[in-house]
Amino acid sequence: MRRRDFIKGIVSAGAWPLAARAQQRVQMRRIGALIGFTETDADVQSWLAAFRGGLAKLGWTEGSNLRIELRWGGADPDRIKTFAKELVDLRPDAILSVTTPVTGALIRETQTIPIVIATVADPISSGFVTNLGRPGGNVTGFALYEPSMGGKWLEMLRRIAPGVTRVALLFNPTTSVPIKFYMTSIEAGAASFAVQASTAPVHAKDEIEGVIAALAANPGAGLIVMPDLFNTINRDLIVAAAARYRVPAIYFFRSFANSGGLISYGPDFAPQYPQAAEYIDRILKGEKPGDLPIQMPVNVPLIINLKTANALGLDVPLRLLNAADEVIE
Q1: What is the DSSP letter of 228?
Q2: Which DSSP string corresponds to 139-200?
Q3: DSSP secondary-structure letter at 91?
Q4: What is the pLDDT of residue 120?
Q5: Average pLDDT of the segment spanning 290-304
Q6: What integer pLDDT is reported at residue 14 of this predicted model?
Q7: Are 221 and 170 a contacting pair, CB within 8 Å?
Q8: Which residue from 202, 190, 179, 80 is spatially nearest to 125, judged by alpha carbons?
Q9: What's the pLDDT at 180?
């Protein structure tokens, strides 16, 4: 009996390290995700699904070895600030930060927890990093826009609506990329096309219609809807007002054209989310965010809503139609 007990004890003792190693293999990791959009946005839900799918392909299964703390900011600066602090206080292994205002709020709360950005404008001009190739610090990920985009929006708008002689830049100062980021290229384009450019700040959705109505009061009006969390969330209101007052408008994201907007020209956000999952995976496996380069988009689709162009009495040049990645009829 003593011999059997002795052997049993050896087997049991040998099992402990195996059990410990098994426990380590299934260690639960925690990541945060703070999304500036609303939870009801179908586009954003598809991006989030792609992010989760990317993690799953890399071996990270929610409820098994991964827990995601998800929060929705809804373009509300106070809500974003509250959730940023809440997530940082949970001390996750990494945080997915979606939109520029969200990233600013998170950086104010932590300079140590890795932050992977997506759907964020130029992180250098926003003050998040000083170098894209080797960002250093705790921020990396995927950016969207370059300063030259401002001039391209003006050019595209003039090509589809050559009668435009005045353009207003619609944005919310509390949720937009700093407007000065685009002004150099917009002013250069305005001088080239003999167009007067002015800013049109709005602070609440109730102001949108009044601003567009005032713009339309004189002939030659055009609208550039700037990259802005507020504008994205209120895209249906903006598109409807532009149609009601017959103001040709260009937008920064294809969902505006899908909602009836005249033309959109801007990066495709969707590919960034599986890529963000890859960066999260690399960070969870020990890489430093500061060593991972911030990447810019490769695909910048041009979408034209021909139905809206016809309603506005615009004859879209064949060259512009041929250059479009998609024409909505």
Answers
A1: B
A2: EEEEE---TTHHHHHHHHHHHH-TT--EEEEEE-TTTBPPTHHHHHHHHHHHHHHT-EEEEE
A3: -
A4: 92
A5: 94
A6: 52
A7: no
A8: 179
A9: 85
Pairwise CA distance, residues 204 & 180, whole Å: 21
Which two tokens mark 209? 């219609």
What's the sign of the alpha-carbon dihedral 87, 88, 92, 97?
positive
Rounded to a whole number of angstroms, the distance between the first and last alpha carbons of the chain is 86
The contacts of residue 19 (CB under 8 Å, 6+ apart) are none
Backbone angles phi, psi at 44, to 5 degrees: -65, -35
Tokens of 321: 């139609």
Q: What is the Cα–Cα distance from 118 to 57, expressed in whole angstroms?
A: 19
Local structure of residue 10 (DSSP, 8 states): H
Question: Is 263 a residue whose pLDDT tops 90?
Answer: yes
CA-wise closest residue to 144 among 75, 47, 71? 47
- So what's the pLDDT on residue 181? 85
Q: How far, rounded to the nearest angstrom, does the alpha carbon of residue 218 sit from its chain's CA centroid?
A: 34
Query: CB neighbours of 155 closer than 8 A, spacing ≥ 6?
Result: 189, 193
Over the stretch 174-231, which tens digit does the pLDDT of each residue have? 888 778 889 999 999 999 999 999 999 999 999 999 999 999 999 999 999 999 999 9
What token pair was written down for 193? 């096309």
Residue 96: strand, helix, or coil = strand
